[in-house]
Design brief:
With 195 residues, the chain is an alpha+beta fold. The protein has one domain. It is 17% helix and 33% strand. The protein has four helices and nine strands. The strands form two sheets. A seven-stranded mixed beta sheet has the order 5-4-1-6-7-8-9. A two-stranded antiparallel sheet has the order 2-3. Helix 1 crosses helix 4. It is globular, with a radius of gyration of 16 Å.
Length: 195
């Protein structure tokens, strides 16, 4: 359901899929969003809500949808947990990212979208740039949490930076999940060397 797109490095894509699958397996949200952004993005996007007066950046404790421009979104996937089987199925959802002024995003709170969800952003063009980034927002019973991580290929993928998640927690999430969000050819031979 979450397919590799043109420009994705296969190994970095696998790292992202494992982290998403493990997060979904651990937290069992009612729904999750997977959004691929066209290129690498840095940690300043974590918690960023928008700008006022065209220049002053605003960060809020009450997380809002990060104001990525819609033309940066390569693909958005939305899955919901089926009540009968507890499996996740692809469902339609309105685009998270809208064409709007930055200040209009200041009130697009995650808690207005769901009370049980994971929102996962993942960078594209990793094959060309040799860099990758991921960001996760989680809401569960009105409690919000978030983290950011970035990688660089040199020649294998190495974790460079984490924010609001420890290296050990990220290692735990990157372990092979019991459930797959898409058919794969099997775990990477470098699965334990990525972090």
């Amino acid at each position: 359901m979450i397919t590799r797109t043109a420009g994705d490095d296969p190994e970095f894509h696998e790292i992202a899929l494992r982290i998403v699958a493990r997060s979904v397996e651990l937290y069992r949200p009612a729904e999750f969003y997977f959004v691929q952004i066209d290129n690498w993005f840095d940690a300043k996007w974590l918690g960023f809500s928008g700008k006022i007066l065209g220049a002053l950046g605003v960060r809020k404790r009450d997380l809002t949808v990060p104001p990525f421009r819609p033309n940066r979104v390569i693909v958005q996937t939305h899955l919901s947990r089926d009540g009968a089987s507890s499996d996740y199925i692809a469902t339609d959802a309105a685009p998270l990212h809208r064409n709007q002024f930055s200040f209009q995003n200041l009130n697009r709170k995650i808690r207005h979208l769901s009370n049980s969800a994971l929102f996962f952003w993942y960078s594209g063009a990793s094959a060309q740039t040799g860099r990758g980034s991921m960001m996760l927002y989680r809401i569960a019973d009105a409690e919000l949490s978030s983290w950011y991580a970035s990688w660089q290929r040199s020649p294998d993928w190495k974790l460079l930076h984490t924010q609001q998640i420890s290296r050990a927690e990220l290692l735990h999430l990157a372990r092979t999940s019991n459930k797959s969000l898409q058919p794969t050819a099997g775990p990477s031979r470098r699965a334990d060397l990525i972090l």
